[in-house]
Amino acid sequence: MIAIIDYDAGNLKSVEKAFRFLGQECTVTRDREELRRADKVVLPGVGSFGEAMSQLKKYELDKLIGEIAAEQIPFLGICLGLQLLFAGSEESGGVEGLGILPGDILRIPSVKGLKIPHIGWNSLTLTGDGRLFRELYADQQTGPYVYFVHSYYLAASDRRIVTASTEYGVTIHASVEQGNIFACQFHPEKSGAAGLKILENFAVL
Fold first, then answer.
1. pLDDT interval class at 142 (50, 70, 90)
2. 138, pLDDT greater than 70
3. What is residue 187's DSSP assignment?
4. CA separation for the pair 126, 139 (Å, rounded)
5. Torsion of CA 78, 81, 87, 91, to 10 degrees
6. Which pLDDT tens digit goes with each residue over 49-78?
7. Which of 115, 119, 95, 120 lies closest to 105 in space, CA to CA?
8. Where do the domains of the chain lie, and which CATH numbers do they carry?
9. Most C-beta atoms within 10 A of its C-beta, which of 2, 23, 70, 147?
């Protein structure tokens, strides 16, 4: 069973709908025991870093997420869920993130001709051998196209965890993987067939 963490963030239902379309049993919950029993856990999210961390702490989910990660349960962060896995963000100075992965969450720099927030489709450059991207390595010239909505981006400290990147005025580390922890800055649930394949790959880990 896949548990989707409910901390009053947006986009939970669309993630649930995508997994159900794939035939996966899933639930949206903040119940601690239900989250602990899950085979896999997903942290989606849209909105601000500071507010999201406040909500996770309100429901005492921040420490639980750390415990789940340490227990080697497959864990997927999506969009803001990726950013929360790091120590902090330029969006909310002084707010501590979950600190599970090493790297910085920075504001996308202003570049002439590029709008912020970054909203739309970008192709991914796949690197390494990311398990989320199984069967998506066939066309390395263009890479899969996926859908982004964000103003802040990840610059990973350890490039070895980066499995996909994209360009939008700066190099964006769009997906990372370390042990049982996976994360995507883009929205696989809104990324058509490629996105569904990414979610399927996570579901069958």
1. low
2. no
3. B
4. 10
5. 100
6. 999 999 999 999 999 999 999 999 999 999
7. 95
8. 2-203 (3.40.50.880)
9. 2
Amino acid present at 112: K
SS3 34: helix
Contact between 3 and 34 (Cβ < 8 Å): yes
CA–CA gap between residue 65 and residue 56 (Å, rounded): 9
Q: Which of 16, 91, 177, 189 is catalytic?
A: 189
Residue pointed to by tokens 């504001």: 107
Query: Is it the case that residue 9 has pLDDT exceeding 90?
Result: no
- Identify whether 150 is a catalytic site residue: no
- Residue 173 near residue 160 (C-beta atoms within 8 A): no
Active-site residue, selected from the candidate residues 26, 79, 150, 177: 79
Q: Which of 16, 184, 187, 200 is catalytic?
A: 187
Look up residue 142 and give its DSSP letter.
T
Catalytic residue flag (residue 26): no
* Residue 46: pLDDT over 80: yes
**Under 8 Å CB-to-CB from 70, ≥6 apart: which residues?**
none
The alpha helices in the chain, defined as continuous H runs, are: 12-21, 32-37, 49-58, 62-70, 80-84, 192-203
> What single string gives the DSSP state of each residue in 5-22?
E-SS-TTHHHHHHHHHHT
pLDDT at residue 58, rounded to an integer: 96
